[in-house]
Each structure stands twice: as structure tokens, then as C-alpha cells.
Write a structure and sequence with these properties.
single chain, 341 residues, three-stranded mixed sheet, elongated, transmembrane helix, membrane, Cation_efflux, transmembrane
Length: 341
């Protein structure tokens, strides 16, 4: 856990330092060459630098311990600040790039000066950005391996927005550099500044797309997304396998922070258990889940009868009924049907 925290911080700090240096170089090149694409890329890098500051804030705040006001901790603060980072990418980078692009395309033609400066800065920025991108890629791959997921699956279901944000951000940065290079090159070859503007518009669209993807992912985490399916199935199977359990009637999970999952289970226990035995079983099962799954930090188990029609109807209303399963069957295993349906 401590190693993961240190690597997340390293990824963000490295990305922020690289972006700040690149932003200054791009700004100088943009002012010297008069390239709209270069100026858009400069603002893009400044926006990325602001993003890293927001991500560092997310890391710092989310590590605060639980207290009376926040009994489940501050884990979701990471999602809030990461959502602001996505907004920053859109508001600062995308909007400016689109404005510069349309102004260049529909405005008066501008003469290009010293394109060599732009090429040198773009080449240097590509090398520096690749270093940051490689670190983010390495962390996402390591996290995917630890979770037993594919790389794509990790990007979709990761509960750590810092690494994925830096990865998407740096991927967009590398793509933006190629677009800027194309814009400057076509401007030089044709003498038409419109290509510079088109490149700037393309950069704006690229940043808007990345901001949308990050915003959607962090909004889902902030609202309260279910844990990854493999973890949900693992929890369900563990509870179902207990000898004292007749059926798992309902199972709800929610990510309450990075590597932190809240589990609420409604379970039909063996009716021969005494009240004291039932209490001990609930405590034991909670401890087993936390031991078997490192991400499970809070467990609440509620004993319920699976024959309760109101409860079964509520579960089916939430998840939808699987074709061929009767809602009136009191012996049906609700969670088994719904989770695999």
C-alpha cells in the first residue's frame, strides 16, 4: 500500500515537472513563430501542470484518516479533485485551443517565422513527455497485473484516478505534439496558416475528448460506483460457501476510495443458529472477507429471510429480472441470478 502511494506521487510529480518545463518552451516557441498550434500546445501544457497540482491535492487529502465527521475516511476526495482536473483540461486547454484554431482559420493569414524553433521545441517536448508517459504506463500495467486484469480493463475499472488521469493526459499530450508538428510543417510547405489553425482545432477536440472520458469516470466514482465485477463475484462466492449461509439474498458494494470498498450483504442464514452464534458468524465472515480481499475495508451483514417478497422485489427492481427466473419463487438465489444476468 505504501509503495503504491509513493508510486502514484512519483507519477504525478514527474508529470507536473515535465509539463511545466514543456509549457515554458512551447510558449517561447509560439511567440517566436506565431504558430497558433504552438500557442495551443503551450496552454495545453500549462493546463496539464494545473492538473498535476490538483492530483497532488487529491493524493494528500484522500489519505487523511477517518474521523467523526467522515467515518468512512476521505477516500472520495481523490475523485473530487480528479474531476476538477478533468474540468481544468477542458476549460483551459480545449477551449483555448479551439478559440486559437478558429481565429486562425477564419482570421487574417499570418506569416510564419523561424519554424526551426518550433520543430526543436516539439522534438524536445516529445522526448520529455515520453518519460512521463512511460512512468504512467508502467504504473497502470503494474496495477493491472496486481488486480489480475487486462490493461484495458484496468483503465476502465481502476479506482485510482491519478495514474489513469496522467496516462490519458500524457497520451493526449504526445498526440497533440504530433498534430502541432503537422500544423507547423504544412504551414511551412504551403505558406497557408490555415493548417496551423486546423491543427489547433484538432488539439482542442482531442483535449475535449480526454476531458470527457476522465470526467465521466470520476463522476461515476464520486457518485458511488460498484466494485469491479470480479471482486463482487468473489465476495458473493465466499459468502455463499459458508456452511451457515443458506442464500445470499442481496449484495451491494461501493468504492469509497482507492483500494477501499464498502460491502453491504443481506444473507439468509441457517434458521437453527442461535442469536449468539449468528453474531459470531457475521463477525467471522466480515473478517474473512477483509482478509481474502485487501480492497474490502468495511463490511455490513444483515440477516434476512429470502422468502420476503418485498425484499426480493426491491432487489429485482434495482438490478432487473433475469429472463426465465420467476420473481415469485421464494427459493431462488437472487444474487446468483442477477449478478450473472
Amino acid at each position: 500500500m505504501a509503495q503504491e502511494k509513493e508510486e502514484s506521487t512519483l507519477t504525478v510529480v514527474l508529470a507536473g515537472s515535465v509539463n511545466l518545463l514543456i509549457a515554458v518552451l512551447k510558449l517561447v516557441a509560439g511567440l517566436v513563430t506565431g504558430s497558433a498550434a504552438m500557442l495551443s500546445e503551450a496552454v495545453h501544457s500549462f493546463a496539464d501542470t494545473i492538473t498535476e497540482v490538483l492530483l497532488l491535492t487529491a493524493l494528500r487529502v484522500s489519505r487523511r484518516p477517518a474521523d467523526r465527521a467522515h467515518p468512512f475516511g476521505y477516500g472520495k476526495a481523490r475523485y473530487f479533485w480528479s474531476l476538477l482536473a478533468a474540468v481544468s483540461i477542458f476549460a483551459s486547454g480545449a477551449m483555448f485551443a479551439l478559440y486559437e484554431g478558429f481565429s486562425t482559420v477564419f482570421g487574417e493569414a499570418e506569416e510564419q517565422t523561424s519554424p526551426l524553433v518550433a520543430y526543436l521545441v516539439l522534438a524536445g517536448a516529445f522526448v520529455l513527455e515520453s518519460v512521463s508517459w512511460a512512468q504512467a504506463l508502467r504504473q497502470v500495467r503494474r496495477d493491472a497485473a496486481e488486480q489480475g486484469r487486462t490493461f484495458r480493463h484496468q483503465l476502465r475499472f481502476s479506482d485510482d484516478p491519478t495514474a489513469t488521469t496522467v496516462f490519458y493526459e500524457d497520451s493526449a499530450a504526445l498526440s497533440g505534439l504530433l498534430l502541432a508538428f503537422a500544423g507547423v510543417g504544412l504551414h511551412q510547405l504551403t505558406g497557408e496558416s490555415v493548417w496551423d489553425g486546423v491543427a489547433s482545432i484538432a488539439i482542442g477536440v482531442l483535449l475535449a475528448g480526454v476531458a470527457f472520458l476522465l470526467g465521466r469516470a470520476n463522476a461515476a466514482l464520486l457518485i458511488g460506483r460498484q466494485a469491479a465485477p470480479d471482486l463482487v463475484f468473489g465476495i458473493r462466492d465466499h459468502l455463499s460457501a459458508a456452511p451457515e449461509v443458506d442464500a445470499v439474498v442481496d449484495l451491494q458494494t461501493m468504492l469509497i476510495g482507492t483500494d477501499s470498498v464498502l460491502v453491504c450483504a443481506r444473507v439468509d442464514f441457517d434458521d437453527t443458529l442461535t442469536a449468539g452464534e449468528l453474531e459470531h458468524v457475521c463477525v467471522r465472515l466480515a473478517a474473512e472477507l477483509q482478509s481474502a480481499h485487501n480492497d474490502v475495508t468495511e463490511v455490513f451483514i444483515e440477516p434476512v429471510p429470502r422468502t420476503n417478497t418485498d425484499l426480493r422485489a426491491a432487489v429485482l427492481a434495482r438490478y432487473g429480472e433475469r429472463p426465465g427466473v420467476s420473481t415469485t419463487d421464494p427459493n431462488g438465489s437472487t444474487v446468483d441470478d442477477l449478478r450473472r444476468g
